[in-house]
Amino acid sequence: MMIGGSTAEIELARLEPWAERAPAIAVAEREARMARAQELTEKLGADALLVNAGASLRYFSGLPWGQTERLVAMLLVPGRKPIMICPHFEIGTLEADLAIPVEIRSWQEDEDPVALVTQVVAELGVKTLAIDPELPFHFAEGVRQGGSAALVDAMAVIKQCRMVKSAGELALMQQAKNMTLLVHEAAARILRPGIRQSEVVHFIDAAHRKLGASGSSFCIVQFGEATAYPHGLPGDRALQEGQLVLVDTGCTIQGYHSDITRTYAFGEVSREICRIWDIEKEAQQAAFDACRPGEPCEAVDYAARAVLEKAGLGPDYHLPGLPHRTGHGIGLSIHEPAYLVRGDKTPLEPGMCFSNEPMIVVPEKFGVRLEDHMFVTESGAQWFTQPQVAIDRPFAE
């Protein structure tokens, strides 16, 4: 049984907390990451790197904090302990969340955190400061105006550090994807005529929680015509016989993302839908086959689009066809460099991880997106999860 025939209560009861948990990233690996960042910062011609709160700060320090209006950032200077800039009242929580030793420089609520950054930069004699591209402009501009250091964009440094995943990162991502695929299977079994999209969304969140994730990191459930819109339409549709179902969801494990999409038939669908589904399947496989070390990222996008154009779809972003890139990098951010899109000439390297999702949209009728993730090896690509088998068989047996 793959589609329908069960209930949310039955499926949730079957799920148990995940037993084979991937280990946390070791302190030694984080230290190696910081050493690599410092090396790349020096090659960039900068004396220090300022990393803003968010995915990149978590990558280096383990701190699972998102960006807010209060400045939280880490200054990496070669040859010394990292310096964390944070609100004074957050020091206790900061110390509890950090995975590495740091020097803390704090600011009170009535003080200017940018002035503290410029003070520390001056104390250390930093002449050129590499700035995290995700640091808000007003903070970066304040550092530029209030200090003597020249500023440069640290995108190249952070991109090169985070793009290639370690074995530890791959293991965390594998767990997240395995969990989400199991949730997908359970969600397919609860479908019935009349079930609403919101019911499926709520079930998927509960199922992720039952497995031990903190719920769904996002969830898109669309029925029928709404599948023609890559991120869906507003409203809460009820499922009918003979409709396509598109479910796109994921979770995080220690910050590392899953993001899997299945598109399948609920009952009998038209020959045209089946034809487009088969083309989508072929395009996804072509993208996988083109993902080889040394090839530019854009080559994977070209391979998927060649399949579509041969079938009379497109070209380029014209519809019916593929309205967006073939895939995106994934890790601590759900979308991160590099990208499988024309113009991204980043050479593929072992350890890079990507979504593979060359969605086909037939405007105002339906859309088909098959999305699984792959990582680059020395000999080619490897799937994290096995792709969908057929339009009426969403999961490999």
Automatic annotation (TrEMBL):
It holds the Pfam family Peptidase_M24. The keyword Hydrolase applies. Residues 33-164 form the Creatinase N-terminal domain. Residues 172-378 form the Peptidase M24 domain. Keywords: Hydrolase, Metal-binding, Metalloprotease, Protease. InterPro entries: Creatin/AminoP/Spt16_N, Creatinase/aminopeptidase-like, Creatinase_N, Pept_M24, Peptidase_M24B, Peptidase_M24B_aminopep-P_CS. GO terms for biological process: proteolysis. GO terms for molecular function: metal ion binding; metallopeptidase activity. Belongs to the peptidase M24B family. This is X-Pro dipeptidase. It comes from Novosphingobium lindaniclasticum LE124.
